[in-house]
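SEQUENCE WITH STRUCTURE:
===
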Amino acid sequence: MFRKRLVELSNQAFTRDIATFSDFLNLNELHILHTTPKDMFPTRYETYGGYDMAERQMVAFLPEALYYDYEYPMTLVEIQPLQEKFAGELTHRDYLGSLMNLGIERSRLGDIVISGKTALLFAKQEIAAYITENLTRIRHTTVRAHIKEIGEIEFHPKFEEIKGNVASVRLDTVLSTAYPLSRSKLTPYIENGRVFVNGKMITSNGCHLKEGDVISARGLGRISYEGTLGTTKKGRSVILVKKYI
C-alpha cells in the first residue's frame, strides 16, 4: 500500500507537470522507496530532510520538464526553555512525546536535533504554526517554540572519530568498531532488519562498505564509514569511523 501511494505521487507529478511531495519517511519507508523498480515511477525523485545527515526525509517527485524552483514543504521549529537555568535535561523521547500528545502524526515530523537545551524540529509547513501555538511544556519545563528559516541555521552534527583494525571492511566489523558489541551479537541484529546503509535495509552481515557510507542502526545510532587509513603488519585494515552523538 505504501509503494502504491508513492507511485500515485509520481503519477500526479507526471500528469500535472508539478512537483509532488510525500510526508516524512522513516527508514523502512525509505528502503521501500529505494528498492522500488525505477520504471514504476514516471518521474525522477529526490529526498531531503532539512540537512545533509537527516534520517527522516521527504521525497519529491519531479517532472522531467521542471521549469521552476521548488522548495520542500517543511519548516524548522526551534524549541527553547523559557528559563534556561530552571530547565530539565530533555531527551529526544521527551520532545517527541509532547508533540505526539498534541495529536500530531509522526509522519508530519522529521528529525528532532538536540543541542544543549535547544531542540531543532523539522516539520511539515502546515502544522508549524499549530506547534508554536500549542507546545508550551515538555515534562516539567516550560518552553517556547518559534519558526525559523531552514537557511538561518547551519547545522553540523557532532561526532567522535573512532579508529580500529579489521580483517575486512564488512558491515559487522565496522559496526563492532563503533559499538561495544561482538560480531556474533551483531549478526542477528543485522539479519532482523535493524540496520540501514544509505537508507537501504541490509540483512547481510558480510555486506562490504565503501567510503562515505552512512549506517543507521536502530537502537544504536548512526555512523559514517570514512575509509581505510592503512594496513597493519599482519595485513589488517586500519579504518576510521565517525560516530554521531
The two ends are 35 Å apart (CA to CA). The CA atoms of residues 9 and 43 lie 10 Å apart. Residues 2-16 form the longest helix (15 residues). Helices lie at 2-16, 27-35, 92-101, 125-134, 171-178, 183-191.
